[in-house]
Fold this protein.
Amino acid sequence: MTARTAAQASTSPPTVREGAGYRGRVRDADVSRHAAGRLGPGQRVAALRRLREQRFDVLVIGGGVTGAGAALDAASRGLSVALVEARDLAAGTSSRSSKLIHGGLRYLEQAELGLVHEALTERNLLARRLAPHLVRPVPILVPLPAGPLPVRAARRAYYGAGVALYDAFAGLTGGARGMPAHRHLSRAAARRMFPSLRSDALAGAIRYFDGQVDDARLVVTLARTAASLGAAVVPSARVVGFLRRSRQVTGAVVRDLESGVEIEVAARTVIGATGVWSDDLTAMLRSAPGGTAGPVPRSGGPAAPAVRSGAAAGLVVRSGLRVRASKGVHLVVPRAAITGEAGLILRTATSVLFVLPWGGHWIIGTTDTDWSLDRAHPAASAHDIGYLLAEVNQVLDRRLTTADIEGVYAGLRPLLAGEDDATSALSREHAVVEPMLGLFLVAGGKLTTYRVMAADVVDRAVRRLDQGLDPGPSRAAGRSTPRRSVTSQLPLLGADGYGAMWRDRAGLARRYGVAVGVAEHLLERYGTLAAEVLRLAASAPEYAGPVTGAPEYLAAEIAYAARAEGALHLDDVLARRTRISIETPHRGEDSVRHAAALMAAELGWSPATVEREVAHYLARVAAERESQRMPDDRTADAARLGAPDVRGRATPARPA
Ligand SMILES: Cc1cc2nc3c(=O)[nH]c(=O)nc-3n(C[C@H](O)[C@H](O)[C@H](O)COP(=O)(O)OP(=O)(O)OC[C@H]3O[C@@H](n4cnc5c(N)ncnc54)[C@H](O)[C@@H]3O)c2cc1C
């Protein structure tokens, strides 16, 4: 905590202020920023109405870190923005990462110096200014294996130079690095810091720091911050086609998966940020002819006579960008299973393996294998789990077994596999393409560099808007759009005032009658918005207690997720707003009834809806457990598909 507090103390004040930069632009001036950033059921109804009635400057498809970041970037430039997400915010890759905000120590070895430098710049910005409440330093050891003295000395020199360069890069990026500096440790010191490391194989270690974040909470916070600046944010809303006028994309057909109603959303530019689903958007452009869409009345500009995508049959569309999926599996084990005060980075035959402290748990990962099966629910097989256990057991003094495992999760890396040499060279970078006028696809990159990706794609969209024939809502009101991104100066919701609130956490706990540990837990998840959760907890006894089966979470957090964080289903609160599904051996089964009761009160669920939600969640857990017993990807995938998605059951319908 000391390092973080020091970093916060030196955080420079943001230079972009709501009153100066954003006043009266897109957000209703009568609504406070915090209120506008509350993603509850009422806001969803209002946002859906806006999708029907408004013509947006930018429609963003995909509520992962890239899409949420792009929505925030565009909204903070004063553009009118809509963000639609097919499932839940962060339901794709962005809730399934190693949760590091990092430069990528291993990329130094591959001489990807520019990438490392860029990512470290972002790390520092996030940890110091944008999200100090969400990104915190995590110490990581590079263990140095035993061996003859010259070999040991050479290894220490090699890894020491790498870590020193890493720190130097971070230090060069505008002042202090936002993380403590690295340190060399003797064999004895390494053992003291990580008693579970096998002593016979250890010659010493180097300790360095990177940032750690709850990836799903980062995404929700980005989306809420975008909403606080006027963006219409709608989860459970899948794009099923594009609207086009000639060779220009003029919007998208969005299906509200909660009602089945389809809406034609008019937009002057569309940004596709759909990660491993990127190729689906290109395919949609080429898809079979759909019905003709008539003019739709729009508040923000002239009606756009449009046709649904593919109406010009046989259209050849080359996106210039193809994304391939690579599966990465993580295990979660209890903190007590391994004794250590830092994480580990271990070399494997093809990559690296992290063992990272995560609250009362450790996260161990990851694998890296091609995946061409179901992308919504990538499944971890017994083979993946066995591989991870074998790798980590090489350095631990007590072998971990499957009995130690609390949770398992799998995610898909969106790796660029370019259609031509220009993009295939970018496999570790990101790319922005415009396959059709007004439609931009952005993919690749990593969690850490979401802001850079967002700025790049919005820059392109702004250039296209500048070339547009009609002025659009923002320009018609006589506003100019900032040419450059302002997000490097824009703290996310919960960041402003966080340092002071953290320092006064004992007082906060006293005022709300909770333990200091509870106040800390909430501050680290919500920043200054923790006060909203504490107020809710204090408002009624049913919110004040812990969640059944998950004592580290307050019941108020489940209710708050539905009231303010866009959660619509049990999956959303048990797998992403909280991490109960991977942090408990029961994987949420013991908590599901309690969570359902809390959600029902917020979302007005009938008893039948409660039963359906509970049954779905239990089926999901059973299918995941089953898949993890299967020997390979194919059988694991088949087992996981035994539990269908809770979303999208409503029959597709057009609005009356
Ligand atoms: C195992 C693993 C570990 C990783 N570890 C790290 C790490 O430690 N640090 C780091 O910086 N990066 C890490 N990454 C990379 C990082 O997680 C990803 O680069 C990032 O999350 C990708 O975000 P995204 O928004 O592009 O994609 P996603 O998060 O997948 O978001 C795309 C969204 O689009 C939605 N969507 C798709 N189709 C439609 C449609 N038709 N209509 C509406 N919405 C749609 C999906 O539902 C999804 O939510 C890791 C990745 C993996 C797989």
Notes: The domain at 540-640 is CATH 1.10.8 (Helicase, Ruva Protein; domain 3). The longest strand covers residues 323-334.
